[in-house]
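Appendix B. Worked example

We walk through a single record from start to finish. Start with the input: the chain for UbiA family prenyltransferase, Lactobacillus helsingborgensis, length 337.
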Amino acid sequence: MEAKKKYSHFTITDFFELVRLNTKLNSLMPYLLGILFAYFYFHTFNWQNSLIYLVAQGAIALFVTGFNNVQDYRLAKSKDYQKEHNLIGKRNLSPTTAMAVMLTLLLIAAVLGIWLTVRTNLFILLIGAPGLFVAVFYTYGPVPFSRVPLGEILAGLFEGLGIMFLAVYINSPVSQLAYLNFDWPQFIVGGNLANLLLIFWVALPQAFFNAATMLADNTCDLKQDLANGRHTLPSYIGVQNSLNLFSFLTLAPFAIVAISVIFRLLPIWQLLIFVTLPKLYKNVQAFRQKQTKDMAFWVDEDNIKHRVPTTFDLAPQNLFWFQLMQVCGLILGIIFH
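Next comes the structure step. The output line below is what the pipeline stores for this chain.
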């Protein structure tokens, strides 16, 4: 029983590592892209809504990673994984304390989400509520989403499309996108389908890159996942098909953005993304050659330890550089519009 076991003190450093704070910049990029696109296309910006959503999205992003780590520890069948690979076991942290911190983050996100709904429209619940549901049940419940081949789809839908869509929605006139009006027992759903399809299209690269990052993660963890009873997409389609899909998800966004520029959905400055093409192509080839995730180190002649980069790191790098160029392209498009 946990009450009979002495655990290490849960520090702020443990919290940062548990939620992988260093990876959360990628969660911020779709948010920025949504705000910038709303200003570029609809010429609107609501700083209050944007600030509320920033805190809410930050809280849910931290919750998802931390909650998944706690659940992975609790559900793990491998004792070696619990003690040597999961932060909870390696640091001898209390799973109950860690879970309490994560649930506090979830509560913050839920309260802010309700506030944002009051400030905008009930339609936001059709996107936000499923997002919260997936965040919780990704590693919770009798059949967690993390143990079936849905991770890539869910990551693309909610971390890519969902974040960017909500960032556009809270900054744009409700009449320009979609609305849900409820007056018991009547309700009305309406909106502009053309604008909704437009946002879906321009946000598609974010969906692809987030799905690619999840796929890279699952491909690297394939053996470990199988040992712990997790059957992710690579276990069904095989490593080679996973690598082919990873290549497609990483390179297809270049074509999507190019088409968007041709049809003037995005400013011509978005073509800055092609500066990253050689690097991303090289990263894709490196990942196809070897899929590693566990950290390794080497010691130089001065006895200084250096971390050996893993090939998994290439996936979030691809996401970051592509999104950074998109952000720069939208900023330039706004300035020179």
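Two observations about the output. The mean pLDDT is 86. The radius of gyration is 21 Å.
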